[in-house]
Design brief:
The complex is a heterodimer of chains A (324) and B (298). With 324 residues, chain A is of the alpha/beta class. Chain A has a single domain, classed as 3-Layer(aba) Sandwich (Rossmann fold), CATH 3.40.50.300. Chain A is built from ten helices and twelve strands. In chain A, β4 and β5 form a beta hairpin. The longest helix of chain A is centred in the middle third of the chain and has 18 residues. Chain A is globular, with a radius of gyration of 21 Å. The relative contact order of chain A is 0.14. The model of chain A has no long low-confidence stretch (mean pLDDT 85). By secondary structure, chain B is mostly helical. In chain B, α9 runs antiparallel to α11. The longest helix of chain B is centred in the middle third of the chain and has 37 residues. Classes of the chains: A alpha/beta (324), B mainly alpha (298). At the A-B interface, β6, α3 and α6 of A face α8 and α9 of B.
């Protein structure tokens, strides 16, 4: 288990906006072990979704990803890959909107069976049996009947389960989740999270889960990365990052999330706006909004500095948070 | 689209709990007939009637449509000639019946061939983009820059009168609308997550285009087809009226209106009945088209 499943080093995504190049993802590095669940949290526009999508080459038109991506499907040393090499072999993805993630002109059973038919050369009948197995695996009741239904006949939660079953049909080692629970109501959200956790255990599948919902990430993830303005500002075990932030942005993010235990603490927003990817501040990008900013914060260059064996932060003064 | 009523029941795969089916539309093949609105049924019945008349023209017609009878010229309706006869003594009813075999297929072809060409070119333009897109769309701009009827007249003059020239001219002009329609739909669908998901599943480009893109862009074009058939039928009649369509003595509705026009004061039915027949087909097709459009919106 010493070899990583996925290694991303110095990933940059550049895009054109009104003729000018912008860099919404600017130097992201992370690693993922087999069977591990990594969460990526951040505001809209922090680059978390683009980071996820560039692993599979699914950038919007005009987007270019640069960086060193390595993946190991067979347990060996991770090797560089082209996105098309892992399509259908090793990495799958599920999306936010279950409405647009299923082809409305295909019965859901055929949708799930498509991967096994193409990649494993199954016969129509075998693929159908496999689709029903997968539907049962993701907890869809009476799968035989539902396999014949169209996507519009299913509820949002069931559609999301169909999407997961489709993603699992190619037996991935890594499942990328692009805010898959955001469009669902809370009780269904909870079921889907439970399902993902269960599948991770059963299939030894690693997951990268992107969300802006800290509560969801805290519940699901082993490790948590916080993104701000295209960079990872803090990474570490999810519980530690949430309970003891090492970056003022993480701390501010936690203060803006309602807690169920807290009595009547006032929620604190973060003053100012997230920076525009066309005009990032020099030095620490969070400094203009940071309550603890000092003079040298605008001089520093971005680097994730380890604070312990399993944690790292981009903040050069993490000690400010230790004060009571 | 929330999942109200959906509760976890993995332990009980075939739960009879009816709340699990909340929001599901029951699949009942018989109900499709009931879901078609009245106007759709009427339109369908009208179109079906025309198709049957075309198929069984020899049975329905009372006379040979091109047989000249100089003795009974311009006769009024009688038991023998139920819609009278024309200038050359040909039975008007039989000519109208036989004309269905010309106007109906030509109307269909005059809409179907442009649709075929336009859907293919539009899908290519949208899916491949780049120079393919540029070339196809610039050509469509050029075609659109010409006044349609003048271009058709010029083409028919150049190619010589006849059914094939007319269909050719319609195709040269008519594909543009379909190409634009399908291109914009392909651009929309190409960015949807299920196309991304299909790519990630490792499917080939051809399979993605065929299974995931094509069925989702074709509906707009299909809905446009009936109204285009109306246009093609009317245009065919108009060109025949002007003497540019089907050459005589083949019976054709537009040409019959032209032939009957000088006698409108004495034999009003001569020009009027073919006109009503054209209107009837147009009405039927429009109703079908409208029904299809509304079904798509739902």
């Amino acid at each position: 288990m010493s070899e990583h499943l996925l290694e991303v080093s110095d990933l940059h995504v550049t895009m054109q906006r009104r003729g000018l190049p912008i860099t919404p993802v600017d130097g992201v590095s992370l690693t993922l072990d087999r069977g591990e669940i990594l969460g990526i949290a951040g505001e809209s526009g922090s680059g978390k979704t683009l980071t996820l999508r560039s692993i599979l080459g699914l950038l919007p038109k005009g987007g270019v990803a640069e960086g060193d991506l390595r993946f190991s499907n067979d347990g060996g040393r991770p090797a560089p890959f082209e996105p098309t090499e892992v399509h259908g072999h090793g990495i799958s993805i599920i999306f936010q909107e279950p409405m647009t993630a299923l082809n409305p002109t295909m019965r859901v059973g055929d949708h799930i069976a498509e991967g096994p038919r193409i990649h494993q050369g199954m016969s129509k009948a075998d693929a159908r049996t496999r689709a029903i197995e997968l539907m049962r695996l993701v907890g869809i009741p009476s799968p035989e009947r539902r396999a014949r239904m169209w996507p519009h006949q299913l509820s949002g939660g069931l559609r999301q389960r169909v999407m997961i079953a489709t993603a699992l049909s190619t037996e991935p080692k890594l499942l990328l989740c692009d805010e898959p629970t955001t469009a669902l109501d809370v009780s269904v959200q909870d079921q889907i999270l439970g399902l993902l956790q269960e599948l991770r255990g059963r299939l030894e599948m690693a997951i990268i889960f992107v969300s802006h919902d800290i509560a969801v990430l805290g519940e699901l993830c082993d490790r948590l990365a916080i993104m701000y303005a295209g960079q990872i500002v803090e990474i570490g075990p999810a519980d530690d990052v949430i309970s003891q932030p090492n970056h003022p942005y993480t701390a501010a993010l936690m203060a803006s999330v309602p807690s169920f235990q807290g009595t009547s603490e006032e929620l604190q927003g973060i003053p100012g706006h997230p920076p525009d990817p066309g005009a990032f501040a020099s030095g620490c990008r969070f400094a203009p909004r940071c309550a603890f900013a000092r003079d040298d914060c605008t001089q520093t260059t971005y680097e994730l500095r380890p604070t312990s064996d399993d944690r790292a932060t981009a903040c050069i003064h993490p000690e400010v948070l230790a004060q009571p | 689209m929330t999942a109200s009523g959906y509760l976890e029941s993995t332990s009980e795969p075939d739960s009879p709990d009816p709340s699990l089916d909340s929001g599901a539309i029951p699949i009942d093949e018989r109900s499709i007939w009931r879901r078609i609105p009245m106007k759709g049924k009427i339109g369908g019945a009208i179109v079906l009637l025309y198709v049957l008349v075309a198929l069984f023209a020899p049975v329905i017609a009372t006379h040979d449509p091109i047989e000249i009878d100089p003795i009974t010229r311009l006769a009024s309706p009688t038991a023998e000639h139920i819609l009278g006869t024309d200038e050359l003594g040909r039975d008007i009813f039989s000519r109208i019946v036989y004309a269905t075999r010309i106007d109906l297929p030509l109307g269909f072809l005059g809409a179907f061939l442009p649709a075929l060409l336009g859907v293919a070119l539009g899908a290519m333009a949208g899916y491949f983009g780049g120079w393919v897109d540029s070339v196809i769309m610039r050509v469509s701009d050029i075609v659109q820059a010409f006044p349609a009827y003048i271009l058709i007249i010029a083409l028919v003059f150049a190619l010589g009168q006849g059914a094939s020239s007319i269909i050719f001219a319609f195709t040269i002009l008519g594909w543009v609308a379909y190409a634009r329609l399908v291109r914009s739909e392909v651009l929309r669908v190409r960015g949807l997550d299920y196309v991304h998901a299909a790519r990630v599943a490792g499917l080939s480009r051809f399979r993605i285009l065929r299974v995931h893109v094509f069925p989702n862009v074709i509906s707009q074009a299909v809905v446009y087809l009936p109204s285009d058939i109306v246009f093609a039928t009317l245009a065919l009649a108009a060109f025949s009226f002007l003497g540019l369509g089907i050459p005589p003595p083949t019976p054709e509705w537009g040409a019959m209106i032209a032939e009957g026009q000088p006698f409108i004061r004495t034999n009003w039915w001569f020009a009027t009945v073919p006109g009503i027949v054209i209107v009837g087909l147009g009405l039927g097709m429009s109703l079908v088209g409208e029904t299809a459009e509304e079904a798509l919106e739902r």
